[in-house]
Amino acid sequence: MKRKIYILILILAFFSIIAIGCSGTSTETGGKESKSDKVLIVRSGGDPMSFNPDTIADDNAYAIVQNIFNRLVKLDASKQIIPDLAKDWEVSDDGLAITFHLKDNAKWHDGKPVTSKDVKYTFDTIKENKTYYFNSRLDIVNSIEVPDDHTVVFKLNDPDVSFIADLGWYATFILPEHVFNNGQSWEDNPASKEPIGSGPFKFSEFKQGVNISLIPNKDYHDGEPKLDKLVFSIIPDEQTAIQALINGEIDVYENVPSSSVDQMKANGKIRMALNEYPSPARIIFNLKNETLADVHLRKAIATAINKEEISKKVYNGVQVPEYSMYPSLIDWAANTEEVSPQFNIVEAKKILENAGYKKDANGFYVTGITLDVFEGSGYPDMANLMKATLAEAGIGIELKVSEFNAWNQKVSVERDFMIEMQGGFMGPDPAALAKRYGTGVGSNYGEYSNPKFDELTAKGAATGDQEMRAQYYKEAQTLLAEDLPFVPIVTYAGYDANNAAYVNLPIDGAGKWGWQEYTYTDIQ
Amino acid sequence: MKKYVTRRVFMGLLTIFVVFTINFIIIRLAPGDPISTIMGKDNDDPILRTALEEKYGFDKPMITQYAIYLKNALTGDLGISIIYNKEVMAMITERIVPTLLLVLTAAILAVIIGTLMGMYAAKNEGSKIDVIFSGAAYIFNSMPAFWLGLILIIIFSSVLGLLPSYGMINTRDAHTGFDYILDVIVHMVLPVCTLVLVEIPIYFRIAKSSILQVTNEDFIVTLRATGMSERKIFNKYILRNAILPTITIFGISLAYLITGVALIETVFAWPGTGSLMLTAINQRDYPTLMGIYLIMSISVAVVMVLVDIVYATFDPRIRF
């Protein structure tokens, strides 16, 4: 008898949980939509950290906020700068003033006009708060002036045209002053949870761990979006997301794993488009390390890496070998003549012999070099292939594979490594070279320092003339190819898999619309 | 009985405290910190790092951080997630309902089906069905659950097109009322099946072996000698004794299931506490992790105490 009662209680508990679970959310979902609505579902890997796009740089929020907010300028699918809120801009002759002219018909989602005061408010606030992502980049800005409602002038301490490109990257979205300027910090401001922007879509609903829904902004200054609803659906697992796309449960999946590319290309309902990023995978040498401080050894290592094999075996040929010291994707700035060495084991040995290295009993010239790699992105596989060819050349490498956070702690915080492997964005402007390899800068993990390189990159940032800039940066790359503080391995590229029924997706918009912007997306 | 219960409850509380302290230390010993997550993958700005460390109190000594956290936790304040700037308690309550729904459904189905199968196999030991059941139990028990989940998605969603592959509700067409409940049930089928398939073998084997064991006890032989009907012997004497281990296992697995289904939740994009925990680990979101671990250790402790009490009711010998 007792047992029956227990079972009965358990069953009752079970049904009451179903009832609670259902009643809790069913009231929120509003009216049922008809099937003919154009609902575009985009796969998202995880929850956004915040809907305030300027406090932190968050990849999960980045795609979403690009559709709610505007920046002064933005990046398109080819990772070039195009106008956003600013219709055009000019740099003064001395390079110390950058003037942006804003579009005059832009409005916030609550109907108020977007003015230059909002721009000033946004950047002034970032400048005051050390914890905001763009704060240190604003050190170069002396003051922001607003001569009229649609003109903003950035007065700089030093000439730096790459500042314009950085305004189209993370954490530079223009926020409404009338909403945010109420004495609360941006983090605690309720407006950071229910954002009001000026972008093509309005925020509708966020269900933690489930999805984020946006609805079109009918008054958008560049035209009303064609979609009826834009949903970012959170699917952490890549394989599940692939199945969901095949089943038509989602429509857009940016950057599918290269192992699934062939299978998806064969599917007629899916349109595959290659999306390239200026973020090559590279190995970086710790120049504070005595062994690696020797440029001959670095050259030998660079010569003993088979980039072709890595590209084919690890990335199915999707990510191709990169020899240029600045991503060849940004073709106007990449130096394709002075590049990192071609694969040649005999040559690598010769370099070592000439530099006076002696073979030990096992045939190794050098041993005990460690390579720190984090899990994922095919990096450990890449490192293993490198280890094999390096061993052939008589260079003994030991792999240290760890989870990303542990790797980050060791490499970027403690700087405790000999060689490390990483990716990372090198755009939108070649000024990124100075941010990665300039003397004493934060992301220069290998602590490379070459005064001539610093001088050239400084010159490149100080002029607005693209031809001159290209020349300075190409010279700087010649130095990098000689010194080899790092070796580029393969480019970063991935296929965007989209529902073939849709046109004008972000990938189709080079020169026209933003990299993750869905304003013009429509059913064919 | 009263003394027994008091002792158990006290032990439970002590366990929670010890686990809490160990968690606090272990989480901070792991390399990496939430600051790196907030700063973004492509950035290492020392000024920004110092400013953020100060803001979240990581510049204070660890013992001070512990004291502050313990004090807050005792008043029921689990703090605010560093990553999401949201109350941890609110985040967990939001996510625990889908998990309980998934876990309880699966656990109850698995315990019923598994035990029935075990009973049948024990009664007909050595029969063809027993061999099939036992073989299948081995296969499913050794199968990684997340892999099985993915295979079920490929078969039932992609190939047959019968069931949705991810989530708890249909994203394209939002439903309300009864349709909503139906929608949730449809979405539950695959994850629940995965869990049930993986859990059944445990209950099957426990039920089968403990029934077999009890059947061979002397008192059963005596009962048989009295001429009592086999049916009565089985239902009244064998089953009552043999069901005890099942209760223990059910309790324990229920407690662990709250976070133990993390991989299943990730595969099916189910918005539960398990996937919240995995994300929090990857982002080193200390407050969220501590909150989840605390809830988890409390639930394990509570279930253990309950199991002990239920056990004591079924089997009075235990109290002494």
Automatic annotation (TrEMBL), chain B:
ABC transmembrane type-1 domain mapped to chain residues: 96-311
Topology versus the membrane: Multi-pass membrane protein
Gene3D superfamilies per record: MetI-like (1.10.3720.10)
Gene Ontology CC: one annotated term: plasma membrane
A Pfam family recorded for this sequence: BPD_transp_1_N
Keyword terms of this UniProt record: Cell membrane, Membrane, Transmembrane, Transmembrane helix, Transport
Keyword hit for Iron: no
Biological process according to GO: transmembrane transport
Intracellular or extracellular location(s): Cell membrane
InterPro entries named in the record: BPD_transp_1_N, MetI-like, MetI-like_sf
Organism superkingdom: Bacteria
Transmembrane segments: 9-30, 96-122, 143-164, 184-204, 242-270, 290-314
Main localisation: membrane
PANTHER family referenced in this protein's UniProt entry, alphabetically: ABC TRANSPORTER PERMEASE PROTEIN, DIPEPTIDE TRANSPORT SYSTEM PERMEASE PROTEIN DPPB-RELATED
Similarity comment: family membership: Belongs to the binding-protein-dependent transport system permease family.
Protein name: ABC transporter permease
Organism expressing this protein natively: Cytobacillus praedii
